[in-house]
Amino acid sequence: MSKRVALAGFLHETNTFAPSRATYAQFEQGGGYLPISRGREILDRCPGVNLGISGSLAHAQAAGWDIVPILWTGAIPSAHVTRDAYERITAEIVDGIAKAGPLDGICLDLHGAMVAEHLDDGEGELIARVRRVVGPHVPIAVSLDLHGNTTRRMVNEADLLVAFRTYPHVDMAKTGRRAAEGLGKLMARARPYAKAFRRLPFLTSIPWQCTSIEPARSLYAEVAALEQRDVASVSYWMGFPAADIEECGQTVLAYGETQAAADQAADHLYERILASEAAFAGRAYEPDEGVREAMRIAGSANRPVVIADTQDNPGAGGDSNTTGMLRALLKNGARKAALGMMVDPEAASAAHAAGEGAEITIALGGRSGIPGDAPLEAAFRVEKLSNGDLHATGPYYGGTHMNVGPSACLSIGGVKVVVASHKAQMADLAMYRFVGIEPTDMAILVNKSSVHFRADFEPIAEVVLVCTAPGPMPLDPADLPWTRLADGMRLSPKGPVFHRPMLREKREA
User: Fold this and answer.
1) What one-character-per-residue DSSP string does 173-241 give?
2) Dist CA 346 CA 365 (whole Å)
3) Cα separation of 218 and 275, whole Å?
4) Using CA atoms, how far apart are residues 306 and 462, in angstroms rounded to an integer?
5) Do 471 and 317 meet the contact criterion of CB atoms below 8 Å apart?
6) How many other β-carbons are positioned within 10 Å of the β-carbon of residue 136?
7) What is the pLDDT of residue 324?
8) Mean pLDDT of 157-178
9) Could you tell me if 170 and 451 are in contact, meaning their C-beta atoms sit under 8 angstroms apart?
10) pLDDT at 502 over 70
11) Residues 396-424: pLDDT tens digits?
């Protein structure tokens, strides 16, 4: 008899230090994800896209399940999800599941690092509400981002949590499929697995979490290798190190036929990660230094030098509008350079009002109140206009159709700037091409991204550099003003130890 399974998703990665919150309107628009989708829209929009829900749906269809699609939505990372957005979306998912009738299983596509205005653990609360309506015996499987700040409540309320294994996240759909496959096994066995959950004592910088470099490359190979014999599933979350909550950080979770098998796998991986702590490191440049190095390399290169403007990464909560790297390009006389994307709706509107070929004098970007950043007041030429429609076919977005609102290519000196109206992380070559910039013809590309861009840009790049212009996502988590992190957490690999203010006062007394 066919299994009846509900599918739903609610994705947000929350940087509690970021300047802008996630409203319901942001979830409606999607910001690099699909727009909010309900019922049949999920079945129509998700196939062939690199998202967890897509992989889960593909497995469900192949397995012949009776699929009950509820709601799927995601918004680009930012500060807290507003209470209004969280409660409206969560209520629609929970009510939809409650009204769906008898179900054999639930498959959820979540992020794992959602913080709402009124809740530290957005996913844990959502899973708990779903659990209350379906009861203790209906298995719940969840696909999660590698950057999830996985909580004890999430582990307790769900039967299976499965994490991405790549950063850039080229395996989102594959992870959704693994979650659905695991749900199928849970429905067939009619009993839960034993669980072993471990929390690491240090945070890591996002650029050095990339799984195409060490130590993450070897660690994730080991994660997959541990799934054998009595070990059903192993996940490693590197965490999102910009959420000022107690359970922010790296975690390991193993499921097994026996508690001993789960414990052994989790303990082995925990010790391997701990032994690799010092290796989570890399070279980063100040803006002028990085641009000069890029110009030096580009002088004899046949491919573009790609710079990650990591501290204004919209995929980590930035508003994608700081001007530090643009100023450095202009100051150092960079030629054949392009920067993307600068999100400034007013600048895009001015460009559209003036028309292609016009010159406009505007104050571009710099509107997030970041210390050390400000709008760049200058004259720009409007090279090309776009309505913002683009098809991102690279490995990260995986075929996603998105709209970033009225957009333009503006030029100044030897630099071209992609200006858009809606946030989306610069992680696809199409995000230059839709405004007439051919990225392979450039000498230098500056991408407002930390790692995801590598999936589509490394094959065309001479080299990738990381730069630290002012932005809301510091390269080093130790630079953030933490107040609520777990006491004793190391703020970076082998770095300073955090102590909560009240506990510190007690120690000093």
Assistant:
1) HHHHHHHHHHHHHHHHH-SPPEEEEEE-SB---GGGG-TTSTTHHHHHHHHHHT-STTEEEEEEE---T
2) 9
3) 12
4) 8
5) no
6) 8
7) 98
8) 98
9) no
10) no
11) 999 889 999 999 999 999 999 999 999 99
264-269-270-273 Cα dihedral, nearest 10 degrees: 160
Q: How many residues does the chain have?
A: 509
Ranges of beta strands (E only) in 101-139 are 105-110
- The half-sphere exposure of 318 on its side-chain side, counting CA atoms within 13 A, is 34
Burial annotation 475-503 (CB, 10 A radius, 16+ → b, else e) = bbbbebebebbeeebbbbbebeebbbeee
Which burial class, exposed, middle or buried, applies to 411 when counting CB atoms under 10 A from its CB (0-12, 13-18, 19+)? middle
Give me 353's structure tokens. 């009002």
Question: Is residue 215 a contact partner of residue 204, using CB atoms and an 8 Å limit?
Answer: no
Q: How far apart are CA 302 and CA 462, in angstroms?
A: 7
The mean pLDDT of 182-210, rounded to a whole number, is 97
Both tokens of 508, joined, read 């000093």
Q: List CB contacts of 258: < 8 A, sequence separation 6 or more.
A: 194, 230
Q: Are 397 and 428 in contact (CB under 8 A)?
A: yes
HSE of 66, CA atoms in CB hemisphere, 13 A: 10
Structure tokens at 509: 């007394």
The predicted structure's pLDDT at residue 37: 97
The residue whose two tokens read 């929390």 is: 199
Q: Which residue has the tokens 């709601």?
A: 71
Sheet of strand 37-38: strand arrangement = 37-38, 66-74, 4-11, 105-110, 140-144, 160-163
Q: How far apart are CA 99 and CA 325, in angstroms?
A: 51
Distance from C-alpha of 237 to C-alpha of 252, rounded to nearest angstrom: 6
pLDDT of 497 above 80: yes
> At residue 68, what are phi and psi to the nearest 5 degrees?
-115, 90
- Residue 334's alpha-carbon distances to 255, 291, 306, 327, 414, in angstroms, are 52, 8, 13, 10, 6
For residue 183, what are the CA distances in angstroms to 102, 141, 177, 199?
A: 16, 6, 10, 25
d(C-alpha 381, C-alpha 33), whole Å: 31
Separation CA 246–CA 250 (nearest Å):
12
Backbone phi, then psi, for 70, in 5-degree steps?
-100, -75
Say whether pLDDT at 372 is over 60.
Answer: yes
Q: Which domains does the chain have, with CATH numbers?
A: 1-192 (3.40.50.2300), 193-282+476-509 (no CATH), 287-467 (no CATH)
Which residue from 383, 321, 387 is spatially nearest to 354, judged by alpha carbons? 383
Is residue 344 packed enough to be buried (19+ CB in 10 Å), middle (13-18) or exposed (0-12)? buried
Token couple for 325: 């790297």
- Measured CA to CA, the distance from residue 123 to residue 8 in angstroms comes to 12
**Residue pair 370/470 in contact by the 8 Å Cβ criterion:** yes
Q: Are 325 and 288 in contact (CB under 8 A)?
A: no
pLDDT at 195: 98
pLDDT digits (tens, 9 = 90+) for 259-301: 999 999 999 999 999 999 999 999 999 999 999 999 999 999 9
Tokens 């006062």 map to which residue? 505
